Each structure stands twice: as C-alpha cells, then as structure tokens.
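REVIEWER CHECKLIST
Item 1: Sequence provided? yes
Item 2: Single chain? yes
Item 3: Sequence as submitted:
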Amino acid sequence: MFNLSNRDKAIVLVSGGMDSLVTTAIANEKFELALLHINYGQRTESRELKAFNEIADYYSVADRLVVSIEYLSQIGGSSLTDRSIEVSAADINNKDIPTSYVPFRNANMLSIATSWAEVIGASWIFIGAVEEDSSGYPDCRQVFYDAFNRVIETGTKPGTGIVIKTPIIMLKKYEIVKKGLELKAPFELSWSCYKNEDIACGVCDSCALRLKGFQLAGIQDPIPYAYKHVYVN
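Item 4: Structure as written out by the authors:
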C-alpha cells in the first residue's frame, strides 16, 4: 500500500474524531508515528484535545505536537468557530456546504504538518479526510490533496519527498467503522460532536454521520449521546 523505500516516520493529523482515530490505526500498522493536533477556536476544543491525548497514549506515541491557530476563530465564517452562527441540525441528504465548514482550514493544518515533517524527517502526512463527510467540504476531496501534494513538492527543500496520504477518503462511514474494528481502534476514546463536550448531541452533522455509520455496521457506538436518531430500519 505504501512505498517504504525512504524513511518510515509518519505524521498523523489527529482531531480526536473517529476518522482521524482510524487513520491513526492504519498508519500505526506500518510507520513510526508523530501525532499532530491543532486547536482553531472550535466549540469543542478542550474535549477534542482530551481525545487526542488519550489516543496518543493508547498508541504509546511520545512524539506529539499541539498547535493553536486561533486566528481562524477571529476570521470566523463557521458555526464551529463563531458562536453567533448556529450549528445546523443534521441533514445527511443535503448536498450544500453546511455552516460547520471552516474556510480553508485543512490547508492551514497541512501547512503546519508539512513544516513539522521537514524538521523531524517524516516522509508521510496522514489525514482522515472523507469525501462523504459533512456534505462535501471542498477541502475534503481527493482533488484537493492531490493539488496540495504538488504544492509540497514545489515548496519544500529538494529531495524532501513528503507525501500526503488519505487512506479512508473514499470509504463510507460504516466502512470506516468496520476498518477501525478490524484494527482494534479504541472508538470509546474518540469524540466527533460539533456542539457538546460532555454528552454528544446526536443531532449535528458529525454526530449524525457517525451514528449512521455505526448503525449500518451493526455496532453500538461506545460514546454517550443526548439523542440517538435511528437511520437504519
């Protein structure tokens, strides 16, 4: 699946959600891990950081970095960073970009990951982007990561050879759940809710997609929810 002819260290961007958790489990099969978590002024910042540290502890990763890019909350434009914008209720059939989209967030994160990769000699950057996720965020598409790989090749030192990997980008949520179970990923440590930090709301886009994925996989989601809609008859 991966070319191991060069270095075998990989940076994984870990938000603390189920997608980044499963991506960590995939990378852990082949690579020495360095885990990166980025706070950007999101509503559930402290809960996501807790999930990140627990996931890093689970995989015994000492090489971890937490960075703040709070300026994204100053820029605003997203219900995740601007509390005057309501987090919209889930509509998993909606094809419009939801209010939770943080403008160009992933490009900011990948730039940080690339800088760190150059310093520590990592050849790979793993990110748990999913095209199905959140009604098609523009920076969750494979075409975006293909383009960013070209930016990295152009903008780093000759011979650096850093490549972004998106191992779950074309999977459905239930397939991600099954992959995580196969790799014994600790779903109970992950956190996906956009609104709450104590009990997952169950009604935001992220909760809805996660719940549907677990239900289609025929597995009980181990985290608590204030409300559980049934998506599978």
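Item 5: Key structural point noted by reviewer: Residues 39 and 68 are 5 Å apart (CA to CA).
Item 6: Recommendation: ____
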